[in-house]
Amino acid sequence: MLRHDGPLQVSLPRITVADVEVANTTIPAGSMVHVVVAAANRDASRFVDPERLGITRTDNQHLGFGHGVHFCVGAALARMETRVAIGSLVTWFAGLRLAVPVEELQWEVNPILRSLVSLPVLT
Length: 123
Ligand code: HEM
Fold this sequence. Notes:
This protein is of the alpha+beta class. The protein contains three helices and six strands; from the N terminus they run αββββααββ. Helix content is about 20%, strand content about 10%.
């Protein structure tokens, strides 16, 4: 789920310490850049059928928690919370389903964090 549609779509800013070549473009040293992890997570050259959620996929080394020295320090906690929260929801509310057509869901306008304005459900 983090690969397919994680809450953090774009990394925090970074400043390049040297010229960096990305896809035939040189980003000069001293530039402020954001890495769009959401795009990397749906890179067709990295993931088979990237637009499909596929919760059983095993080749799933996504960037939903970042990468390298700034890898999310809360990743283990977030994974545990999500396991408990979603596991409990689907156990307690076996009939849980959307109360509105999926097209009517509204997303917050925020270039970095992706979240729903609300998620109306029926139990
Ligand atoms: C599903 C939940 C979460 C997601 C998707 C997430 C995602 C991320 C990502 C992508 C980064 C790297 C940002 C970057 O490279 O610019 C990050 C960093 C970080 N996260 Fe999380 N995070 C989550 C939950 C948490 C929780 C629960 C905590 C704390 C309890 C936390 C604390 C941090 C901190 C302190 C950093 C900065 C690490 C550093 O810069 O060295 N995160 N997170």
